[in-house]
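ESCALATION

Customer reports they have been waiting on this structure for their group meeting. Please prioritize. Original submission:
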Amino acid sequence: MIVDRSFRGCVIWHEPNVPADRMWIAGRPATVSVVDVRIGVTQAPREISLEVDDAARDDIKARVEAALSGATDVLWITDKRGKDVGVPAVKIAYVEVGSAEGERRIGFGG
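Update from on-call: job pushed to the front of the queue and completed.
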């Protein structure tokens, strides 16, 4: 068991090689903010929808900008479950990086 104090000053314990969404803080599951990323692909009927860790938001924006500027040929993103998704840069129609999971609004409220 590993004890870590780097998560907002709280004590976290988890087994080695356990994903962040399986960690525990003070006897309760740790909450990790998740951001929705949607990628539109040209000549494809559906968009690619991923959930990534909120800490990776700036890294994803930098990777998208590099792919659209021609610095890289493929945009690679790893989702919160560890799945790698690659999209050819020339096929990217749009990329939408959503807000954190706790900030989502549902319904007709203002």
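Sent to customer with the following note: The two ends are 45 Å apart (CA to CA).
Escalation resolved.
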